[in-house]
Design a protein that fits this description.
This protein has 343 residues and is an alpha/beta fold. Helix content is 42%, strand content 19%.
Length: 343
């Protein structure tokens, strides 16, 4: 392999509680390593201080594993891409500091990546042995995660137009918080999805927000679930246990309805050929099903990411870095992490 002509990007992800590293060769994925922190389960949610300490302990072995799995040398790396934000300040700081140090030691460029833009660009990851069928510009992307819910019109690799976003809680948070109300362990979103498979989505009705435009709100929905359960448990203390599957199915159905209603409004105005789904909640079976269904109704081509690229991962950071490398968009060594970062 002629290292002088190849573009090798090392991507580093540390925005929340997943430590990730990935290597791309000329836009094709060679390795993708993720260490998921289990320490937070005992606390019912991510504890920022514990997350940053875990990143400190794992980032070197994770990066080392990604480089070894890719069968490259550190000296062959063309640039180091990293998540600058948004995310948890302490977690981001670990990744940013490591990326800056490594790039300085290797005398190679440094590339900052916006975490939510990277989720969208995960659709452009080329994986050996799989079909490469990315969405065509411009396309509409629904990004749904634990911290963000947005509808974005993507005009190019470096041009993102946010059409709508959440004014309070995100869809992923709504899944996890309502799961916690039901007494399910963290992370509750996947468990709600699993239990919902055996339930009736029409069994219970919960409040849906009435927000103008394309923005989302999930705080009222969460309050509706809480107050409804409190009322039903007064009448029957075992209500949740008796109706757990139906409750999960109804919660999942309502959240998905809220998501798809706004997306449909956008598609009625912004006519595009392709629509994409991104973010951790895109792993939810009902969201994936309804998204594909809506795309068919609107005459659009649906792009749904493989499960490996739904949740936080470094492959999406590396592919974002690859496009920035081609554009010559590099960062200074003076750059700092940004917990809050506009699209």
């Amino acid at each position: 392999m002629d290292q002088n002509s190849d573009i090798i990007i090392l991507g580093i992800e540390s925005s929340c509680d997943d430590t990730g590293a990935a290597v791309l060769l000329n836009g094709e994925l060679l390795s993708n390593v993720t260490y998921t922190q289990d320490v937070h389960k005992a606390w019912g949610g991510v504890v920022p201080e514990l997350a940053s300490r875990a990143h400190e302990a794992r980032i070197i072995p994770v990066v080392d594993a990604a480089i070894k799995n890719a069968k490259i040398t550190k000296q062959s790396i063309s640039a180091v891409a990293f998540t600058r934000g948004p995310g948890l300040p302490g977690s981001l700081m670990v990744g940013v500091s490591f990326a800056k140090s490594l790039a300085l030691a290797l005398h190679c460029p440094l590339i900052e990546v916006h975490h939510m833009q990277a989720h969208i660009l995960a659709h452009f990851i080329k994986t050996p042995g799989t079909e490469y069928d990315p969405p065509e510009f411009p396309f509409i992307c629904l990004t749904v995660s634990g911290g963000h819910t947005q509808i974005v019109k993507v005009h190019a690799f470096d041009r993102f137009e946010v059409l709508g976003g959440t004014i309070d809680d995100a869809a992923g948070e709504a899944f996890d918080k309502t799961a916690k109300i039901l007494g399910l362990p963290y992370p509750g979103g996947p468990l709600v999805d699993k239990l919902a498979q055996q339930g009736n989505p029409q069994a219970f009705r919960f409040a849906r927000p009435s927000i103008k435009g394309y923005d989302y709100s999930f705080s009222g929905f969460k309050t509706s679930v809480l107050y409804s359960l409190q009322k039903w448990q007064k009448e029957d203390p075992d209500f949740i246990t008796k109706h757990l599957n139906d409750l999960c199915a109804s919660i999942q159905f309502t959240i998905t309805e809220i998501l798809m209603d706004k997306l449909q409004q956008v598609l009625n105005v912004h006519r595009v050929k392709d629509i994409a789904l991104a973010g951790g909640v895109s792993a939810n079976s009902e969201v994936r099903r309804r998204f594909a269904e809506l795309a068919e109704q609107q005459g659009c081509c649906a792009h749904i990411p493989p499960f490996a690229y739904c949740t936080d991962n470094a492959a999406m950071i590396a592919v974002s870095g690859h496009f920035k490398y081609l554009a010559g968009d590099f960062s200074s060594q003076n750059i700092m992490a940004m917990a809050r970062m506009e699209m």
